[in-house]
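Lab meeting notes turned into a lecture example. A postdoc, R.K., suggested we walk through two folding results consecutively so the class can see how the record format repeats. The first protein's sequence and structure tokens come next.
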Amino acid sequence: MVCLLRDIGEVPKSILFAKTPRLRIPGYSWAPASFPRQKAYAQQSVTVWADGSSLATIGPSGGLMATYGGLRFRPTITARANTWYLTLRGDENSKFSAFVESRSETEALTLESGDEYAILAMEPLDPEFVYFGALVVFCHSSASECLRARFVRLLLFHQVADAKDGHFESAAFTYLDEGEFPPVKAMCDLVDENQSWCIE
């Protein structure tokens, strides 16, 4: 698969959001173990094989180079959880929820307080919809002009429509319980949709 990807040189940006097993090879944490079919993609609104403006470049040593927007955050404590509530720094009324799809104990994630993370999205967020976001962890040598990160997994990702008095309230989540672990809260910053990334 790695040789094929190197020969192709370009893939759709939306490949980052495919619901498929990934390669466990340095530089290719983002890469599917095999090319997914259309129905494997988490966001059906995304065209799988899109025009040139929606293509990502594959580096000679791996790495998916493309632009994505989203949220970046650093946990204040190391915690294992199914759900994260994120508040936009400087705007306490802008809140987001990200959660593991299955919400089971085996699927819960441990996020380290010493690491920085981002949840990347293909499209601008609309409070009416739930999206799949790509959770990535920053590489320590990341440069400001092109952020370097490693793919972790997909998360469901939602902008909370009604946030009042520090509480997260949204009709989209009334059917969800808290799962095996309590939610973790953190402050976050917006990532511009034109930010360049190298996902290793």
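The second example is placed directly after the first for contrast:
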Amino acid sequence: MTHVMLPGYKIGPHMIFSEPLHVVDDDDSMRDAISAILVDAGYAVQTWASGTAFIGALSASTSGVVVLDLQMPGLNGLALINQLNQAKLNIQIIFISGHAQPPDVIAAFHRGAADFLLKPFNRLALLEAVKKSALVVSQNRLLKLNTQAAMAKFNTLTPREKEIFKSLASGMTIKGLTMQYQLAEITVKVHKAQIMRKLEIDSFQDILRFSQSLPSELLNLSTADA
């Protein structure tokens, strides 16, 4: 394995992407050529001579962009992306191939490939595909961080406050809450004030925005929550 680690690189006017790129190809010359293009553009790159070697080095925290050859001995590209999908990692796959048939391309996209480049491809096509994939990885990472921060605040609420928050996020009024939970209006208002304070929000619009940062399944009210 060749390991080239460089500082984060720019992928937009104000964005920095610090994840390594992974190039997985059993062809030494192709692997080195792709790596050279990416390193020259300022990317941090790791190269792998087989899908098995790449899979063996993965961890639960692995993320980034993978430039992946479709046809390799042993673990080929489609088999590898199946394993990556099962691992649920924050990874974007760019397939490359010199002999792909239409069913191969379709199968790759059905499995979640971000792009598919046919060899020989030019430098700009590769860099554009990598840039788009890097943006997706960055957005996914930011979304995860936002969700974690929102969950940390949400978990400071009491069970009753969580129920009321869910109802507020679904559009229920104060009057509706008093009927739903058989509480006095002043009690509901106190609960709402506590929720707003703990979540550091100020308005109904903030409640809606905050709810969008939470896992969707968390806001599905069950009979037990009602």
